[in-house]
Every structure is written in C-alpha cells, then in structure tokens.
Design a protein that fits this description.
Helix content: over 70%
Number of helices: 20
Radius of gyration: 27 Å
Structural class: mainly alpha
C-alpha cells in the first residue's frame, strides 16, 4: 500500500502557517493562532514523527484555548501514538463534544488498539455518518483495518466506499491491495492490471504484480514487471534486487551475479548482496571467489545481532562445501562443525559431513 494522496500539509496555506509558528519560536514572542490551526500544526509534527514538537504546539495551544476539543484530541492522538492507550482513552472520555467526528474516529482507533474491532466499528460508523461519508475518513478506516489485519471489516468498508465512489483510483487501489494481502492472487492481478490500463507508468502497480508473479513462481512474468520498473525509474534499487532474484530463480547465474555485484558496489556492507554474489559464483563453480564472498558475508552477519540462526546454518554449509572443493580441509571441517553446533539435524550439513569429516569423527 502506498500513500501518494495530496495533503493539506503540502499546501501553501499550511506552509505559511507553519512558517509563522516556527518564526514565533525563533523570535521568542507570542502569536495568536486559532485552535484548528494549532491542531493542524500539531498533527503535522506528529505524522512526521516529531512528537515532542507536537506536544509543544499542543501545550502552547492550550494556553490560548484551554479545554479546546480539537487541541485535546491532538493530545490524545499523541498519547495513542506513544502506545499510551489507557491515558488516551481517559482523555477522550473527558472531552464533551458528542458530535465531533474526529473525536469519534479517535475513540474507534483506541478501541482498535485494545483489540476490539467491533467496538471500533461502532465509533467509525458514527464518525462517517457525521462526516457525510467523507472519502478521506473512509480511506483512513479502511487502511486502519487493513493494517490491523481485520480483513472482513476492511472489505465491508471498501464495499461501501466503492458504491459511493466506483471510479475512485484510491479505493480501487485499496481493493487490489486487500486482494494482495489476503492471498487472492489472481483477482489482485486483474485489479492491478485494470489500474495499469490507465496508469501505465505507476511503478507501485508493476511492483505489486511482480511480487505476485514471484510468489506464484512465474519468474519470467515477474521479471518483465521489474524490467518495466527499471525502464521507468533506472534508480529503483529495490526493483533491480527483485529482478536479480527472478533471474537467480531461473538459474541464470551469470546475469544474476552481474546485477548483484553491481548493487554490491553501491552497498558494500550488505550481507544479503554478498551472500547472493557468493551463491552465483558457487553455481558457476568459481569456488575460490565464492568462498571469499561467503567469508565476507560471515563477517558482516556477525555485526548484526538480529540475524536468524537459519541463515548462519545455510552459510556454514556453503562455507564448508566451498572450502572442501578448494582443498582447505581444515577450514571445511571448522565451518561444518560450526553449522552442526547450531543445527545437528540439518540434512545438507549431515550429507557433506561424510566426505569432509575424518572417519574417526
């Protein structure tokens, strides 16, 4: 799912408002702002991850407009963003403004944070009714349910949105994304292709299609999608990486290596790229070069505490096998034993143990 919608925060009106507020801070003076302007500035900082700045705006706003509902809603939003859902709920319950659609929407978000999607749905329905089926609010609700994997409720709101706005690119895209997220691959392909009929240069749709074909093991079609992305945006490294994965899966080791190695030149600390360069060289039977890449990979892995154990086991297999093939028997035994220490039952390691380990071991 992407977010490319035009925003009030990109407008000249808001840019000037933000500049006025920041000039006030730098000048050390006090300037009057409407409560809704305060709420908008606070929300801007909040969605950009600057919660401390957002809090400062809110406190200043409350000094101008004590107990203002819009500003207090912003404060509750920040509490929720910090994971303080109990405090956010207490604050929203203290706000006396029963017909405030933003307050009702926030109460829905809080219920969702507590794992009560049906209660959230009640608040969301009230908020949308007050908003006169505002498309922006419908979008936010759909995205919330999608992010929380409440797919049935997500589909319910999408059905409503598509009835109200059947030609909306945004809602059609969200429906395609929902099919993608729920594993309905063939239907998702139809919807993304429908979008590409009109928006042929949108790389997001090509990327989604490519990933679907990749998951279906249709690597030639997947590659075509990533080729299109590369033609549209030659600097898209993620698409090049996926293209290389398609080519690797089609056993074209030379071409895959060329792409991985080119990407590695731009990101020499990537253990993923190092590993796949090694794998391509291994398949090309360039074992000495492969061994060097695998050793570099091991060095990089040790700098990352979050590497899964399975990756070490797989790497030790290739280190042991390449070391054996180039005649470094002592190193081969060392890598093999390191791998077996992590997973004594790994079938690949056990298979090569018979040829690497001395008979007495």
């Amino acid at each position: 799912m992407k977010d490319d919608s035009a925003s009030y925060y990109d407008s000249r009106e808001f840019t000037e408002l933000l500049e006025m507020y920041e000039n006030m801070l730098s000048d050390g003076c006090s300037v009057y702002f409407d409560s809704i302007d305060i709420a908008n500035i606070a929300e801007f900082y909040s969605i950009n991850g600057e919660l401390d700045k957002s809090d400062e705006v809110i406190e200043y706003g409350l000094s101008l407009h004590p107990s203002d509902a819009d500003i207090l809603i912003s404060k509750a939003n920040n509490l929720l963003r910090r994971g303080m859902k109990d405090e956010a709920r207490v604050l929203t319950e203290s706000i006396s403004d029963p017909d405030n659609q933003e307050l009702l929407y926030l109460k829905g978000e809080i219920e969702l944070a507590f794992g009560r999607p049906d209660d959230a749905d009640t608040y969301f329905s009230q908020a949308v009714e007050l908003s006169d089926n505002d498309s922006g609010m419908l979008n936010d609700i759909i995205v919330k349910y999608m992010d929380n994997r409440n797919y049935d409720l997500c589909q319910k709101w999408l059905d409503m949105a598509l009835v109200l706005s059947p030609e909306s690119r945004n809602f059609i895209e969200l429906q395609a994304d929902l099919y993608f997220d729920t594993g309905q691959a063939d239907t998702a392909i139809e919807w993304y292709n429908h979008l590409l009929d009109e928006f042929a240069y949108d790389t997001y749709y090509w990327d989604q299609l490519g990933r679907i074909y990749y998951e279906k093991n249709d690597f030639p079609r997947a590659r075509e999608c990533f080729d299109f992305i590369e033609a549209i945006n030659p600097d898209d490294k993620s698409a090049r990486m996926m293209k290389a994965s398609c080519i690797f899966s089609m056993n074209d080791w030379e071409e895959a290596y060329a792409i991985y190695n080119d990407l590695l030149n731009d990101d020499p600390s990537s253990y993923t790229l190092l590993y796949y360069c090694g794998r391509c060289l291994y398949e090309l039977e360039r074992f000495e070069n492969a061994y060097d890449k695998f050793m570099d990979t091991l060095s990089m892995l040790m700098l990352d505490d979050d590497v899964p154990e399975e990756l070490y086991v797989e790497l030790y297999y290739y280190l042991a096998d390449t070391a054996y093939r180039i005649g470094c028997l002592e190193q081969a035994e060392k890598h093999l034993l390191n791998g077996l220490a992590l997973d004594p039952e790994d079938e690949d390691l056990r298979k090569i143990a018979a040829k690497i380990l001395p008979e007495e071991k």
